[in-house]
């Protein structure tokens, strides 16, 4: 019931705070940070995590404007820390020693006038190895690729019909001219059975 009420109150009023980034993909044993930017003064920020695997919504840590942190039950204090700004409207959750058990969606929230304001959430995925970034080489180095941005570009590009149609015709003529030569060669040198 608490989780349902928490989400209902939060998502109906989350315009008063923004949370970034929306997605994080990090490597095991590394660290990461999530920013919670509030639009109004507050007494501090709560951080929660929704675990899809465990199907639980757990309280991680509360940090007040003085920087004092209060941790939830069974929460590793060496893993989570919160840093606030001097204006007390922005808070950063720092997560260290990342592990697969840290996977989940993290939410920042604060209470004001008996209401609970909830952030939009940050999905965190922890993997053993990050995927390699792939970049496309310039088109000038790979003439096989043909990307036409306009009609004018299509007339002059390496893949233009004005270039490959005559080229294909020449190759076809060369192949056809080899047929009679191969036929004559076969007649002059007929195949002989093995052993003769």
Summarize the SSE layout with pairings:
Blueprint: H1 2-11, E1 17-20, E2 23-27, E3 32-38, E4 44-51, E5 56-64, E6 69-71, E7 80-84, E8 90-95, E9 104-112, E10 115-118, E11 122-127, H2 151-156, H3 161-188
Parallel strand pairs: 2-11
Antiparallel strand pairs: 1-3, 3-8, 4-5, 4-9, 5-6, 7-8, 9-10, 9-11
Structural description of this entry:
The protein is of the alpha+beta class and 196 residues long. The chain contains three helices and eleven strands; from the N terminus they run H-E-E-E-E-E-E-E-E-E-E-E-H-H. Strand 4 and strand 5 form a beta hairpin. The protein is elongated and about 100 Å long. The N terminus is likely disordered.
Task: Give the rounded overall mean pLDDT.
Answer: 75
CATH homologous group name of the domain at 17-127: Immunoglobulins
Structural class of the helix and strand makeup?
Answer: alpha+beta
Strand content is: 25-35%
Reported for the largest beta sheet, the result is: 7 strands, mixed
SSE string, helices as H and strands as E: HEEEEEEEEEEEHH
Instruction: Tell me how many strands there are.
Output: 11
Poorly predicted ranges: 1-13, 139-158
Q: For the record, give the distance between the C-alpha atoms at the N and C termini, rounded to a whole number.
A: 94 Å
- The CATH topology of the domain at 17-127 is given as Immunoglobulin-like
* CATH class category label of the domain at 17-127: Mainly Beta
What's the total helix number?
3
CATH architecture of the domain at 17-127: Sandwich
From the alpha carbons, calculate the radius of gyration and give it in angstroms.
Answer: 33 Å
State the share of residues found in helices, binned by percent.
Answer: 10-25%
Shape: elongated
């Amino acid at each position: 019931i608490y989780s349902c009420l928490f989400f209902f109150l939060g998502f109906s009023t989350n315009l008063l705070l923004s949370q970034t980034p929306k997605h994080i993909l990090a490597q095991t044993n590394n660290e990461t940070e999530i920013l919670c930017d509030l639009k109004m003064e507050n007494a501090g920020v709560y951080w929660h995590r929704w675990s899809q695997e465990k199907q639980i919504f757990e309280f991680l840590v509360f940090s007040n404007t003085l920087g004092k942190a209060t941790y939830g039950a069974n929460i590793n204090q060496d893993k989570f820390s919160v840093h606030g700004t001097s204006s007390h409207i922005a808070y950063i959750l720092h997560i260290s020693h990342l592990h697969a058990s840290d996977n989940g969606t993290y939410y920042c929230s604060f209470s004001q006038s008996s209401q609970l304001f909830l952030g939009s959430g940050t999905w965190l995925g922890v993997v053993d190895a990050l995927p390699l970034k792939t970049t496309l080489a310039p088109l000038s180095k790979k003439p096989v690729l043909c990307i036409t941005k306009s009609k004018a570009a299509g007339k002059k590009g390496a893949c233009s019909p004005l270039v490959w149609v005559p080229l294909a015709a020449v190759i076809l003529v060369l192949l056809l001219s080899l047929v009679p030569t191969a036929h004559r060669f076969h007649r002059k040198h007929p195949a002989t059975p093995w052993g003769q």
